[in-house]
Amino acid sequence: MPGKWDWLKDELRASGMARATPLVLRFIGGRLRGPDDLVKCALCPNMCRHACPVGIVDGRETTSPAGKARVALFLRQGRLQATRENVSPLYACLSCDACSVWCPFGFSVADLLRPVKEKTAGGVGFKEFREVFENLEKHGYVYGEPKPSGSGSRNGDLLYLRGCTLREKHPDIGEKAEHVFQHLGYRAFTIDETCCGMPAYNLGNTSLFRKLARKQAEKIGSSGAGTVVASCPSCVYAYRVLYPKHGVEIKAEVHHVAELLEDRLKGLRGEGSFVIHNPCKLALGLGKPRALWKTLSSVEGLTVKEPRRSGSETFCCGHGGSAVPRLNPELARRIALERGMELTEEAETIVTACPTCKQAFQSNGFKALDIIELVYFLLGGEQCSR
Amino acid sequence: MGAGVETGCAIPPGALDRLRGLLGERFSTADADLFSYSHDYWPISLQWVLKGSFPWLPSAVAWPENTLEVQEIVKTAYENSIPVYAFGGGSGVLGGTVPEKGGIVVDLKRMRSIRLNEEDMVVEAEAGVNGYYLEKYLNSKGYTLGHIPQSLYVSTVGGWVATKATGQFSTKYGGIENMLLGLEAVLPWGDSVTVKPHPRTSTGPDLRSLFVGSEGVFGIITRVWLKTCLAPGERILLSYVSESFQEALESVRRILRRGARPAVVRVYDETETKRHFYMFEEAYGRVMTVMIVEGDSRIAGAERMIVEEEFRGRMLGEEPVKHWLETRFTVKEASEFTPLGVVFDTIEVSVAWSRAMLLYRSLVEAMRSVKGTLFASAHASHFYPQGVCFYFTFAGVPKGDPEKYYNEVWSVAMKTTIENGGSISHHHGVGRQRRSWLKEELDAGFQLLKKVKTAVDDKGLMNPGNMGL
Ligand SMILES: Cc1cc2nc3c(=O)[nH]c(=O)nc-3n(C[C@H](O)[C@H](O)[C@H](O)COP(=O)(O)OP(=O)(O)OC[C@H]3O[C@@H](n4cnc5c(N)ncnc54)[C@H](O)[C@@H]3O)c2cc1C
Ligand code: SF4
Ligand code: SF4
Questions:
Q1: What's the fold here for domain B114-230?
Q2: A47/B329 touch (CB, cutoff 8 Å), yes or no
Q3: Strand ranges (DSSP E) for B101-164?
Q4: Residue B381 CB–ligand 1 contact under 6 Å
Q5: Residue A104: which residues within 8 A CB-CB, separation 6 or more?
Q6: Rounded Cα distance, A147 and A144, in Å
Q7: Helix (H, G, I), strand (E, B), or coil: what is residue A3?
Q8: Could you tell me the distance, in angstroms and rounded to a whole number, from the CA of residue A195 to the centre of ligand 3?
Q9: Statement: residue A70 has pLDDT above 60
Q10: What is the pLDDT of residues A290-322, one digit of tens each?
């Protein structure tokens, strides 16, 4: 079979352009150091704009995927001053990675922006983030001083990590989860957990992220658990994908609840119509775009609907990535409304698998259940709070 | 105006206050926003992006959310003699949105409601609706617009009408002008006009055509009504290898004469066949044609028979078409080549069948003759019973000023097209790159166009300089 670049070699010969030969041959041979990824993205016509919740809902070039890469490039070049106004567009990102699904280079804009964020954020010192960093430094918890929690018992065989948002906003889901795990045959236990570090990572404070990661890994390790399950897909993403990249090891197997429940609900019966919202970190970050659908559609009697943008085309609830709800709560609200309306065209009740998504929809007037709540209900628990 | 950034036109304080009062956060003079709206996808403006240095910046950017807000912005601009530039997805490739006289860029992307009328098979969309978003919405209801440009993910409905765009499936569904039933636009002095969406009407000159291909010079399109079609029940993938470009084109001409309308037809010359289909050995060095016939299964079945009867070439099956479907939105060239100093661009022109091969050969030769050209090639991308669109690609490694080389290639290409009886643009439009040739293309029509411009836009504020107007 002819090679990918044979045509160009033929053209080069035919053009008689001896001068261009070394450049072209080095390019073909992969020996030419081309532009870095940020430059490539800045020169892209925005081929993932349609998938980016910020790009679509905010409608600004400045916060579109390639637009953010351009702003980052201008900041890096020193063409734009690192003022709050100029740096803010870099934080109009949900870290949802929807861009990477469509990108011909496979880029995630969130990753491309991170080095520039790290460089500039310190100088700008967003006051909206300062409190988060302080809370994380002091308490290892996003929301300030946590209420005492964690059974501390190490008798179980499954360590359940609830994550900050579930502990703060939906502690009842934590209790229901333990009941669900019991039904599946596990003896679950909790610990006095530390934040996984994702908020620090998303907000451009990688050193704090590493510190929290080491602390949390140590706690998980000393719990003696062989299997860990978490309700928040971002936490699981941190444990499975980011920690190893930053040299932090977790020996236990880590699952998200939707993964644990997959294939385990057969024989269960229920009724009602639900629409599923795939959390981005589950669908894209962990590469499980069908997990929620597979799990729920195995329950007899349930009508499970999918929205227009589903599977790996999922659309963030607007509250991912830690930054948008803090710097631009109005944009976060508008994205949640956009997604909520699309979902509720299919069914009144949304089922998701992420405490932040649930919170985003619920606080904007939609009925939203975490998968744990639904399963708890199907198992005969009382009517879930909506 | 943002600190340290020079813009071409100062907005008087009264007008600034009025617009800030009207739009709040949706009106900006922040540097990051001004930089973001000072270019589009014109290769020359990509050089500016690369350097982070722009010859022109707007004075402000506005993001209206409805027609009334657009009217207020335009009225304020008119009263204060401030230039206005409509901005869709910024995917235009000819500098159509470059704010060369300063002023206000009006980005329509916050206007994105969609309403489908299934009985009438009409969809109403605000100008800022994203292309993919619209198509996905229609598909979920069992319809298609049939308008699938390569920039589907990037561009807007308003931008399509303003540039008279056309999609990859145009041989069946037509260009955007064939889908457009009606529109609403804001005129240069701030009033709005609605051309109602009738199935057909004979009520004087067609006012829609004032805006189709207007590239922002007559006003701002705020809403359109487009025809929809049922999503295809059947899709048939066909491909052929021919011994020559001419033989393949001749086959397509015979198919169209008989009334068959494959949605997609693309015929690649020898160079482009090698480039895009190198993995199909049988085609290497020959001419590849990919085709998609789609629609109601009975009609599609009949069209397939016509294609099979008329195409002289070796059938290659579905795989090359699948390969095209998988790669048709892979856009990497500018990102990879621009920073290396390689000049790369595409030029699309149209021509009647009787002059097609002559124009193709002359143009490839003309582009190759410019010193520094590495290659020049083409595929035929859109077809009509009367003629064809050739989509040329060229790349060069110039010794001196890249912009000079770039303009030299464009110059010979435009000149050769006109000499050979073609039209200098099939679907990208005119913008700032092609404006110096429009006069020659339109002849006396250019004077007429200028008079229309002066009558409609008496202060010359709508996208001034674009199209040479
Ligand atoms: C990768 C790529 C592939 C492409 N493929 C195709 C293709 O297959 N077919 C095709 O036809 N084109 C194609 N193009 C060109 C471009 O996408 C089209 O011209 C598209 O229609 C532009 O739409 P936009 O919304 O991006 O407009 P913009 O680039 O924002 O604007 C283009 C022009 O229209 C004016 N304008 C925009 N919106 C309005 C409005 N609401 N009212 C009045 N004026 C307005 C602007 O002032 C400007 O002059 C491609 C471009 C790229 C980068
Ligand atoms: S990570 Fe999500 S929000 Fe950020 S640019 Fe990509 S698609 Fe947009
Ligand atoms: S992430 Fe990829 S597709 Fe999106 S703008 Fe950047 S280069 Fe383009």
A1: 3.30.465
A2: yes
A3: 104-107, 114-117, 122-126, 143-144
A4: no
A5: A47, B329, B330, B331, B332
A6: 9
A7: coil
A8: 31
A9: yes
A10: 999 999 988 999 999 999 999 999 999 999 998
Ligand nearest to the CA of A66: 3
CATH of domain B333-447: 3.30.300.330
Lowest mean pLDDT segment, chosen from A35-39, A286-290, A380-384, B450-454: A380-384
**For residue A50, how far is its CA from the centre of ligand 2 (angstroms)?**
10
Q: In CATH, what number does B234-327 get?
A: 3.30.70.3450
Does ipTM surpass 0.90 in this model? Answer: yes
Cα(B51) to centroid(ligand 2), Å: 25
Interface contacts (A, B; CB < 8 Å): 169
Reply yes or no on domain B13-107 having CATH 3.30.43.10: yes
Q: Which of A321, A355, A316, A322 is nearest to A129 (CA)?
A: A322
The per-residue pLDDT for range B258-310, each reduced to its tens digit, is: 999 999 999 999 999 999 999 999 999 999 999 999 999 999 999 999 999 99
Among all bound ligands, the one having the nearest atom to the CA of A103 is 3
> Residues of CATH 3.30.300.330 domain(s) within chain B?
333-447
- Give the span between the Cα atoms of A311 and A101, in whole angstroms: 11
- In this prediction the pTM is 0.95
Q: List, edge to edge, every strand of the sheet that includes A188-189.
A: A188-189, A158-161, A227-230, A253-256
For chain B, give every residue range classified as CATH 3.30.465.10.
Answer: 114-230
- The 10s digit of each residue's pLDDT in B345-395 is 999 999 999 999 999 999 999 999 999 999 999 999 999 999 999 999 999
Could you tell me the strand order of the sheet in which B264-268 lies?
A: B314-315, B234-242, B287-295, B264-268, B373-383, B387-396, B343-352
Residue found under tokens 């710097």: A327
- List of chain A residues whose C-beta atoms are within 8 Å of the C-beta of residue B35: 70-71, 74, 79-80
Partner residue opposite A43 with nearest CB, options B46, B153, B373:
B46
For B203-249, how does the pLDDT look when each residue is reduced to its tens digit (9 = 90+)?
999 999 999 999 999 999 999 999 999 999 999 999 999 999 999 99
Instruction: Write out the CATH class of domain A263-378.
Output: alpha beta
pLDDT of B1: 35
Asked if A45 lies within 8 A of B331 by C-beta distance, the reply is: yes
Distance, CA B129 to ligand 1 centroid (Å)? Answer: 13
Tell me the two tokens of residue A99.
């861009």
Say how far apart CA A34 and CA A44 lie, in whole Å: 15
Mean pLDDT value across residues A148-165: 78
Q: Shortest CB distance from B52 goes to which of A43, A73, A81?
A: A73
Separation between Cα atoms, residue A370 and residue A202, nearest integer Å: 23
Kindly report, as residue ranges, where domains of CATH 3.30.70.3450 are found in chain B. 234-327
Q: What pLDDT sits at residue A122?
A: 67
Two tokens, residue B468: 């040479």
Q: Which ligand is nearest to the CA of B134?
A: 1
Q: Do B36 and A61 touch (CB under 8 A)?
A: yes
